[in-house]
Amino acid sequence: MTEYLTIGTHSLAYEVTGEGPLVVLAHGIGDSRHSYRSFAPALASAGYRVASVDIRGCGESSLGWDGYSRTDIAGDLVAVIRHLGGPAVIIGQSISGGAATIAAATAPDLVTGLIELAPFTRKQSFPLGAMFRMPRYRKGTRHLMGTMFGSLSSWKKYLDLAVPTKPADWTSEIARIEITLGEPGRMKALQAMCRANPGDAGAQLAHLTCPVLVVEGSLDPDWPDPRAEGERILAELPAGLGELVVLDGVGHYPHTEAPDELLAVALPFLARNAARA
């Protein structure tokens, strides 16, 4: 059942399933909480109270927000956790991985752990050498650039590349995404998120106090070397807080492509860190 949290003159859509320690799921750009359609029920079955959120401008959440930065999204996640009586572990993908970092750094009493899936959590560079040597990285970057200019076709091409192993319902999922992004204002929100600089999240890495699990896919087209990106994130965390898992053959959407593999690495982390909630 969809519920709504009012923030100012806007609303965030979310749904809660299961009982137990609170886990908040936040998706990436141009998507919705539906991307956790296989993963969320498994978490709930494992004994967690799972809140799946449509981040601002996405899914069933309202449009017209003043900003779409990671800092903005972090404030929304903190509001959801407070509303639901946290604390919580946040599982955030892509832009929401960066937002989760900021949420944990700015509200440490409400966040007991982070699982960041293919997170954009640091200021990015675009090495020209990798563009020439690595077709997958070059294509992904090109498609994202097209998306920044409002091309839905480019976004669909990016998704096709970024999800190398398609779930069984992929055709209907792409149709759903296309319909949603066709709603007036949705593509503009996606463009704004594409342009948002992840430096605000990177600036908070050193201030984290809760454990962090970074999950990368070896075939993620967003970086020349996804493992190296994960290692750079860990290097900027306080010593001993972070751990990295790289899922072989997975792209930018571990929760969509490999929910069972993700669950296998997430449950031990949650057992250590969500129990305190």
**Uncertain runs:** none
Second rung of CATH, namely the architecture: 3-Layer(aba) Sandwich
Strand content bin: 15-25%
**CATH top level label:** Alpha Beta
Biggest beta-sheet profile: 8 strands, mixed
The CATH homology group name:
Alpha/Beta hydrolase fold, catalytic domain
Count every beta strand, where a strand is a DSSP E run of 2 or more residues. Answer: 8
What structural category arises from helix and sheet content? alpha/beta
User: How many structurally independent domains?
Assistant: 1
Q: Under CATH, the topology is which?
A: Rossmann fold
- Count up the helices: 12
Give the H and E element order.
EEEHEHEHEHHHHHHEHEHH
Radius of gyration: 17 Å
